[in-house]
Amino acid sequence: MAKTLAVFGATGTQGGSVVSNVLSDPELSQKYKLRAISRDPNSSKAQALKEQQVEVVTGDTSDLASIEHALTGVDFVFLMSTPSWGPNALENEFNIIKSIADIAVRKGVEYIIFSTLPSCSKMSQGKYTAVTAFDAKAQGEEYIKTLPIKSAFWCGGFFMENFVTQPFLGPKPNDDGTFTLARNAPATLKLPYIDATDDAGKFVNAILAEPDKYVGQTFCAAAGFYSLAEIATLLSKSSGKQVTFKQVSYDEFKASLPFMGDLFAQGFACQAEYGYFGHGGEDKVSWATKNIHGKLTTLPEYFEKHPFSL
């Protein structure tokens, strides 16, 4: 009998990738019955899921009663959380993760697959504490591991989609028609990237295929590591415009951002000092990619499919 897999964020990038990858897998599509949890089950994206025979139910993290209902009769959960902003960002996001995980336990869910991130605060021993979007998920992972429920984790690198969805971090124009990609980190810093739309679900599929094998394991997910200088070159090639990389000071980079300047500036500072995934990040990614099926999209391939515009 098929297990019911409830997917948070099913109409978004991560959850949508989980849904599409399960549906396209001949074995997993028979092993799991998909339930999409959506704030708006009448949206066009939710309707598209229904047309693929995916059950769509209402679930809003601001209404925990709706989550109770959405997780009734569920065996597996793919859980992701969106960042909170403001002075209580870490606590607010963590409390949402905790509440959903607690509901999953109460409802008798068998297994949680949680979308986590590394803790900048923990890696830096308290030096970098403003990267709340990472730290909240890391605390959520730690909490889930204490619960009487099986769990595994996928930890994604930077999304290749961010080049479009986060234009405030992109190259800035110069007076001479060229562009500058600036970070408070050296040009040699290598960062992990993943095509989340196509490839996030491939890592989750590995867990779904052999859940008992991966209990407690974390899949650090990326197609490869690219230096900031390499990224500038790729952006140049894709856009047809000259893009160069420039390392700037912490304060200059922070001042260039429209919001949450310390979060992003501390994030890049932490990654320059400790690595995105912490010590041995490339080995962690190598292990994860050896345990999945299917080819991953490299950053050059992504830009060939999705040309970058400046």
Please describe what this structure looks like:
This is NmrA-like domain-containing protein. Pfam families: NmrA. It comes from Exophiala spinifera. By secondary structure, this protein is of the alpha/beta class. It has a single domain (3-305), classed as Rossmann fold (3-Layer(aba) Sandwich), CATH 3.40.50.720. 43% of the residues lie in helices and 20% in strands. It is built from 14 helices and 13 strands. It has helices at 13-23, 28-31, 44-51, 64-70, 89-106, 120-123, 132-145, 162-165, 196-209, 228-239, 250-255, 261-274, 281-290, 299-305, and strands at 3-8, 32-38, 55-58, 76-79, 111-116, 150-156, 158-159, 172-173, 179-183, 190-194, 218-221, 224-227, 243-247. It has a 7-stranded parallel beta sheet, sandwiched between helices. Strands 7-10-12 form a 3-stranded mixed beta sheet. A 3-stranded mixed beta sheet has the order 8-9-13, with helices on one face. Strand 8 and strand 9 form a beta hairpin. Helix 1 crosses helix 9 (196-209). It is globular, with a radius of gyration of 20 Å. 44% of the residues are buried. The mean pLDDT is 97.
